[in-house]
Design goal:
19 helices; two-stranded antiparallel sheet; 6 strands; mainly alpha
């Protein structure tokens, strides 16, 4: 028996030795990729970026801006729920990380256009981060081989870095190459010119933010970027057909527009935006929402309450095969109008302002006569007075419905509109909606020393620190 056991053990060891020799070579599938192509990584970056405009957006910034009110379980409307850690985590791990991998693989494949597109997407992700949190890891982020506690960069450092990154992206996109962007460009289908317009339009948005910084060197650089675009507006989006957007195929293909997955009966259109539109008989009002109890009135839902009135219009907004717009032509025209206005170029500002309104209304199939009548109203018409810029900010807030990250940033930058604290707020002593997201709990625990250097009090919940371009006074 002992002899037999030894024999079997010997045979077993020999067999194991022969099986594990060259194990990796024997068990490698010659048909399986070990490195993802740059074009696939680009597609994944675009797809993951879209998820930032789903549950986190509709529950938090959409409610802060008065665009959306939850029908029930409305603690986020009332600021009673901490900022979602998932926004921070996903932007760094699922989007910026994917973009960096796409850039590395594009270098290996010698494909400058994919690398340029990936830089643009990475820049958009960083802009979402800095606008939501203020100081963030930028130069040392996503470098886990070097540090697990990255230092934080100021808003100024991040914005200046992004302007430089986008310039680098355009240089790459201008390079001559025989290689195309492949099937992974699910945004523009390989149209390099559109990626350049995306980069320049994003630069215009960022430069406009930078103009509010209390720093002459920064504002001078921002003004030069704005002037460069004003001098050649073919560099940015030139029609609504060119909107930076992703169109979703819908439920049949298991890839749906992010808002449409959140429950059509749970999120209603907020009373601030609906009521503001009603005062001017805005023809977009019925395109955004329809009343569930008083047909034709489109009465908005009050955040923090549950009147159950204005459901989103599923023809235009809440459809699973809908479109997600990252930057619209209408937004670009409003940015240009603001730039002209601040240079005292009233006629040019008026034209750009009206073009922005027209462009947005045409997206909702509103007829020209209704558009002209709307623009002619005293509360809308650009007259060159000090109130004109506030009219522009109001129109921009209305246009940014369904892009609430941007609407929230603009409300904090301009203080237009000035919304009251919601009914039944957990923090009724504040006189403005939240200033920022608080840092994720894990970041506060593991990277406390670097957060402390920023001057941000990590324990502050939503209020306290105002992001560099938020120069409002008397707010709390």
């Amino acid at each position: 028996m002992i002899r037999n056991i030894l024999y079997l053990a010997t045979v077993g060891m020999l067999t194991l030795s022969s099986c594990t020799k060259n194990f990796e070579e024997i068990n490698s599938n010659p048909n399986e990729m070990t490195i993802a192509p740059a074009t696939s990584l680009l597609a994944n970056t675009i797809k993951n970026l879209g998820y930032r405009f789903g549950s986190n957006e509709i529950s938090f910034p959409a409610s802060y801006t008065g665009h959306i009110a939850k029908r029930q379980y409305n603690e986020s409307n009332r600021y009673g729920v901490p900022a979602p850690d998932g926004h921070w985590d996903a932007l760094y791990s699922s989007i910026i990380s994917n973009a960096l991998h796409s850039m590395e693989e594009a270098d290996r494949e010698e494909n400058p256009h994919i690398k340029g597109a990936a830089i643009v997407l990475k820049s958009y992700a960083y802009q979402l981060l800095v606008d939501a949190y203020g100081p963030i890891p930028y130069e040392q982020s996503n470098k886990i081989q070097e540090t697990t506690t990255p230092t934080y960069n100021t808003e100024k450092e991040v914005y200046l870095g992004l302007i430089g990154d986008l310039e680098d992206a355009i240089v790459l996109l201008n390079e001559s190459t025989t290689k195309n962007m492949g099937s992974g460009d699910i945004m523009f289908g390989g149209d390099v010119e559109m990626w350049k317009k995306f980069a320049n339009s994003l630069s215009l948005r960022i430069a406009t933010r930078m103009m509010s910084f209390d720093d002459s060197e920064t504002t001078a650089l921002a003004q030069s970027k704005i002037d460069y675009i004003l001098a050649d507006q073919s560099l940015v989006l030139s029609s609504s057909i060119e909107n930076v957007a992703v169109s979703y195929p819908g439920a049949e293909f298991k890839w749906t527009e992010p808002w449409s997955t959140q429950g059509v009966n749970l999120f209603l259109v907020g009373s601030p935006i609906i009521d503001s539109m009603a005062l001017k008989a805005d023809p977009r009002r019925g395109k955004y929402a329809h009343s569930t109890s008083k047909p034709g009135l489109n009465i908005g839902e009050e955040a923090g309450s549950s009147r159950k009135f204005a459901k989103m219009n599923t023809t235009y907004i809440y459809k699973n095969d809908g479109t997600l717009n990252y930057i619209r032509f209408a937004e670009v025209k409003f940015l240009i109008a603001e730039a002209y206005s601040k240079k005292g170029m009233t006629t040019e500002a008026a034209t750009a302002y009206e073009d922005g309104i027209k462009a947005n209304m045409l997206e909702f199939e509103i007829d020209q006569a209704s558009i002209d009548a709307y623009i002619a109203q005293l509360d809308v018409k650009w007259d060159g007075s000090e109130t004109s810029i506030k009219k522009l900010y109001m129109e921009k807030w209305i246009m940014l419905f369904h892009n609430s990250w941007e609407a929230w940033a603009e409300m904090r930058r301009t203080d237009v509109p000035t919304l009251p604290i919601v009914d039944n707020s957990f923090y009724p002593n504040h006189n403005r909606v939240p200033f920022r997201f608080n840092y994720p709990a894990n970041e506060v625990i593991l990277n406390a020393s670097n957060i402390e250097k920023t001057g941000v009090v990590a324990e502050d919940n939503y209020w306290g620190y105002q992001i560099a371009w938020d120069t409002r006074t008397g707010v709390n």
